[in-house]
Structures are given as C-alpha cells and as structure tokens.
Design goal:
Elements lengths: L8 H11 L7 H21 L3 E3 L2 E3 L3 H4 L7 H4 L2 H21 L4 H13 L2 H17 L4 H12 L2 H12 L1 H11 L1 H20 L9 H17 L7 H20 L22 H16 L1 H8 L2 H11 L2 H21 L12 H5 L1 H25 L10 H21 L12 H13 L5 H8 L1
Helix pairs in contact: 1-16, 2-5, 2-16, 2-17, 5-12, 5-14, 6-9, 6-20, 7-8, 7-21, 8-17, 9-12, 9-20, 10-11, 11-12, 12-14, 13-14, 17-19, 20-21, 21-22
C-alpha cells in the first residue's frame, strides 16, 4: 500500500483492519474482551477514593466506606468474561496449531511474548520513579503505596499466563470429558473452599487460582464448539450461576463484594472462591444469551471499527490506567488537595466523578498512545521453537515477578535504593529467556 493510500490516524488504521476482518471471525469474542477490560478500568477508577484528612491524603476505598456499593462489583468484576473469551480464543488457536503440525513451544512462546512485552516498560518506568522518589526523600510508605497501586493489575497476567500454559491439557480434557471436565473443576474449587474456610487449612485457598479460572476457561471451549447455540443452555447457566451466588452470599460465609474490601476477613477474588465462580457462570450465561443481539450490533462497520481500535491497545490500557490515576492524584495533592476535600460517597463526591473521570482519561490516552507500540511488537504468528527449559524457566520467573509485585510492591522499606531490585529483575530475566531484548542473545547461545 502506497503512502498516499495508507490510512491516516488511529481510526483510519482501525477501519482498514475492520474492513479486512474474515467473515468467519466471531466479532462478539473481541467485543467481550474489550468490554471486560473497560469495565475493570472504570471499576478501579470508581472504587479508589482518596481524600484529604488533617492535611494528608488518605487512601479511601469506596466499598469499605459505603457497604451498598459492594453489590456493584457483580457488574464490574468481569474478569470471568476475560477468561471465557480466553478459552474460546485459545481453543481456536491451539486447534489450528495442531492441524498445521505446529509445536506447543512455538504456540505458547508467541502468546507469552504478546502478553509480557507491554509489561516491561511499565516496570522500568515505575522502578525509575521509585528510585528517584526515594533519593529525593519522599516517604517510603508513600512511594510503596503509589507503586503498588499502579502495578497491582499485573497479578492478573501471571494467572492468565499459567492458565494458557496448560491449554494442551485443558483442551484435551474438554475433548475427552466434555462437561465432566467443568464439573470436576467446580467440585475441586468447592473442596478447596471447604478445606480453607471450614477446616482452616493454611494457604490451600491459592489453589483456586487454578480451579476457578480453569473452570471458566473450559466454558470458552464449550462456546467455541457451539455447545451454547441452543438458548436453553446459556439461560440455564445464567439462572443457575445467579441462584448459586445468591445462596452462597445469603447462607454461606462469602461477602457480597466480588473483590477484596479493606477490613474484610474473606476476599472472593484474592484468591478466588466458589462464589466468584458462580458469578462467572452467571456472567457467561448472560453474555451468551445476548450473543445474537451483539453479533447484529457488530455488523455495523462503525461499531466494529471501535472494537478493533480498543482491542489494538487493550493490554496497554489495562496496564497503564492506574498509573494515570496516581498521576492525577499526585497533581491534585501538589495543588493543595484540590478536589480531594469531598467525603467519598457524599453528594458532592458523586457529582465530581465526571470531572475526575475526564482527567483520568486525559492522562491515560497519551500513555496508551506512547506505549501501545510494545503491545503491537508482540503480535504476529507463532514464534520459533525454544527449548522447554527456557520456556518453563521464563514463565516461572515472569509469573513470580508479577505475583510478588502485586502482593508486596517493588518498593522496599529497607536498603539504600528503596526498591526490591531482585523483584524488578525477575520479569526481565524471564522475558529474556523467551526471546526479548539483548539478554535473549546470550540465552540463545546457552540454549
């Protein structure tokens, strides 16, 4: 395509891609992916409610301040939809790889690179901020709070990478056992909850990062195979999931909120519980019930172009939206706490949300435009085969780095630098092992 005919601007390029979409592509999958991430972004911006108290900024949490808002998480906690979409997409991709005689190494390396590339600039920049802030004498607890808030979204990637890593096994289980593979995971999640909550077995609840999210991921395989074409099945999934969720919340130990709430003894998301799995089933059922309507809507080129545009930078948006939030809060604090004096949940606070959201969006957009190139760098066909030791080692280092970052922050209360440099290094070393950066060339010689 010549420079004269090449589309200009983001919308023009997205429109060109939308026009080239194969007719067999299920556009509703891409729509749900975009919808789920956008809902998470809005939810994060809403529940984080800092305010000024005695001249200092207090990190308020809307769900802890207004109990009724915890019900809103049934709509904003939509990570189950992302895993549903992931199951559909991974099922299609893995089946195609097998038909072409491709390898697991090449298939998974491509997915791993596409997800980890956009994370590295975020880590690098926040490491620089933490080092600079500590050197300038900013209180370490402030640095730690800002870094942890900005980087907390990375926990999701570590879980999703692990779920994707076992696609050959989970897909084979679906092909062999069908709905039985889903039932086994649901029973496993229930057993883990019983051992953790009723019997007090320590740390076993972390196993539900596997059982819960793999169960929803299996539903994606079912969707891809057409098991929900009869309207009765998604209706049953929706009604059954909602009934189970209401029962668990009313009669069980599970809180209403589907994300963690400060001061709550039990979180439904960290790690996930059977209540969150029930919500996932309800959301999946409702989404699949609405699929015919969604497909008709997405037949519009304008609407589909918008979905293509968002999906082209979706991971960048997810990773950087809380950095934008922190930047706006810091600016407000430096300006004497402007806009932070209204009590969270008050009429004045709610009335000011449109203004704050406009500021968040205004700061997020330049970040997305600047860093989306790293997301696009990871796109493309399956990669060349890597030795399995490199693939497995890289995956474990990346997931350990992402998980520890969300749990304890890269900022450290000790040491000269104020940064846990060993923690920052983990995802970079892992990425190098699977093909990123100059260190990759050294690893390649070793492999």
């Amino acid at each position: 395509m010549s420079s004269e005919t090449r589309p200009r601007g983001l919308w023009g390029r997205a429109r060109m891609m939308a026009e080239q979409t194969p007719p067999e592509r299920n556009r509703y999958v891409d729509f749900l992916r975009a919808l789920s991430i956008l809902a998470v972004v809005v939810g994060h911006w809403l529940v984080a409610a800092p305010y000024m108290k005695d001249g200092a900024v207090v990190g308020g949490h809307l769900l802890g301040l207004l109990a009724w808002t915890q019900w809103l998480t049934w709509g904003f906690q939509v990570m189950p939809l992302f895993f549903l979409v992931g199951g559909y997409s991974n099922g299609v991709s893995w089946a195609a790889t097998r038909r072409k005689g491709g390898s697991y190494s090449g298939w998974y390396t491509g997915r791993l690179q596409r997800l980890i590339y956009p994370v590295l600039p975020l880590f690098a920049i926040w490491t620089g901020f933490a080092l600079t802030g500590t050197a300038l004498g900013v209180p370490r607890e402030v640095v730690a709070m800002a870094a942890q808030l900005a980087l907390v979204p990375v926990w999701f990637l570590s879980v999703y990478l692990m779920v994707s890593a076992v696609v050959p096994l989970s897909h084979a289980a679906w092909r062999r056992f069908g709905w039985g593979s889903v039932a086994a995971l649901v029973l496993g999640a229930a057993l883990i909850d019983w051992l953790s909550i009723a019997r007090g077995v320590p740390h076993i609840n972390f196993a539900n990062f596997g059982f819960v999210w793999l169960a929803v991921h299996q539903l994606g395989y079912a969707w891809e195979e057409g098991r929900f074409e009869a309207r009765a099945r998604p209706a049953l999934l929706f009604v059954g999931g909602l009934a189970a969720l209401l029962t668990l919340v009313k009669y069980g130990p599970y809180p209403v909120a589907m994300i963690g709430v400060p001061g709550s003894e039990l979180s439904n998301s960290m790690p996930p519980t059977i209540a969150l799995l029930a919500l996932g089933c309800a959301q999946a059922g409702l989404a699949l019930l609405l699929e015919p309507l969604g497909r008709r809507m997405l037949a519009s080129l304008r609407v589909w172009t918008g979905v293509v545009l968002v999906n082209g930078m979706i991971m960048t948006l997810y990773l950087w939206h809380l950095t934008a939030f922190v930047a706006v809060m810091v600016a407000a604090w430096l300006l004497g706490g402007i806009g932070l004096h209204a009590a969270p949940g008050s009429g004045a606070w709610w009335a000011s949300r449109p203004v704050w959201f406009a500021l968040y969006i205004a700061v997020t957009l330049p970040l997305v435009l600047l860093f989306a190139r790293y997301e696009n760098k990871g796109r493309g066909a399956d990669q060349a085969e890597l030795p399995l030791w490199r693939l497995a080692s890289g995956l474990l280092l990346i997931c350990a780095g992402l998980g520890f970052t969300a749990a304890i922050s890269i900022a450290s209360p000790l040491g000269v630098t104020g940064v846990r440099l060993w923690l920052v290094a983990l995802p970079f070393i892992g990425a190098a092992l699977v093909g990123f950066g100059p260190v990759h060339r050294v690893a390649k010689r070793l492999g």
